[in-house]
Amino acid sequence: MDISFGEASMESLSLQSEREMEKSNGKGLLGQLKKVVLAYSGGLDTSVIVPWLRENYGCEVVCFTADVGQGMKELKGLEKKAIASGASKLVVKDLREEFVKDFIFPCLRAGAIYERKYLLGTSMARPVIAKAMVDVANEVGADAVSHGCTGKGNDQVRFELAFFALNPNLKVVAPWREWDITGRQDAIQYAKDHNIPIPVTKESIYSRDANLWHLSHEGDVLEDPANEPKKEMYMISTDPEDAPNQPEYVEIGIVGGVPVSVNGQVLSPPSLLAKVNEIGGKHGIGRIDMVENRLVGMKSRGVYETPGGTILFAATRELESLTLDRETIQVKDSLALKYAELVYAGRWFDPLRESMDAFMEKITETTTGSVTLKLYKGSVHVAGRRSLYSLYREDISSFENGQIYNQADAAGFIRLYGLPTRVRAMLH
Asked: Where does the record place the Arginosuccinate synthase C-terminal domain (predicted)?
């Protein structure tokens, strides 16, 4: 969806923005750019960044918003906010299908989990947003892109590495690394000084990031790792204590390591994820509290709600126990750690990740079947798994049948396998 504004709307631009442009005479205080595409959310920071870019770089600002499943509430009123802040145009793109199909599902297939817990919700969203921003920059003839990430976080790296990979000729403007604004009060004052309307909604005490895959929480009491999260903080999952007293069974159909159906119903990637989010959230599934190592070197504490992702990870892992042999599982698990590290570090478009993705796709060709999971008060337990490509043979594993596997053969295997142990013992 491309939302642009006519002459009447352009006349509604605030007078102070015109004065800023006249003052700079087409050249900003920090340099000169023709047109900048700004990653825009409509919050305080990005509302202030629009006039700041015009004032300091003498440029036209095109705002860009990606729909990655954060909800209609987050998208409401963006057109009005963008134009009132001084933007010439707002572009909104629905990236939900691409996000799930081309970013989430490859990570799921790879088994990528960062530092034992984090299912990479924010990490996967940034490259798909950055890719769309580069596309918009090319479409509108922009010579620069801009974001509102701070100089302390991971997202600045994720955005900018994607920009470098997809269009190295684009200049990157990161206001938080350049301006004199040091916090929320400075930003509010800047907005007042420039007659920029700012959001009047009550400020959340938490810093949150939402998309189809997860909802993250940082800040307030979470800044002390000793504090337990407040019950009212959670937004998309029921407290396990308040979850239904009866378990629910859910069947996930998988083809080539990628989920395709829920309880026998084939769904599109975003619809499937929304469905398992709803089911998992009801049972308090997918709450993760962790202290992680940020790419920039500091530790941070975050709480994540990933109900659907937790269910899908459990399902794919259990199906692989049938379809992958021991050596393949071990190699896959070792590469999954590196895969997760690359995604977390913003190296989505790195040739190494792309090569590893080809490997993951190849070895999971036979990871096709279904897994039934039992959900109960925050826990996920496997209830059953089946696959036409299963390497499990009941006629071999059964204690009752000895026609294929001769137990007497184990004696020679053990003697050979244990030879190094016997040799070491003989030395002593």
From this structure: 206-423
Express each pLDDT in 208-218 by its tens digit.
999 999 999 99
Per-residue model confidence as pLDDT tens digits over 14-47: 444 444 444 434 567 788 999 999 999 998 999 9
pTM to 2 decimal places: 0.90
Q: Which of 17, 41, 45, 67 is catalytic?
A: 45
Examine the residue annotation and report whether 325 is marked as an active-site residue of this protein. Answer: no
88 is known as an active-site residue: no
Catalytic residue among 177, 186, 204, 207: 207
State the catalytic residue, choosing from 109, 126, 158, 347.
126
| 155-166 vs 121-140: helix crossing angle, rounded to 10 | 40
Q: Does residue 13 surpass a pLDDT of 90? A: no
- The one-letter amino acid code at 159 reads F
155, 158, 353, 370: which is the annotated catalytic residue? 155
Alpha-helical regions (H) of 219-373 = 269-282, 307-323, 326-344, 351-363
* Annotation says 4 is catalytic: no
Report d(CA 166, CA 323) in Å as an integer.
36
Does the annotation count 261 as an active-site position?
Answer: no
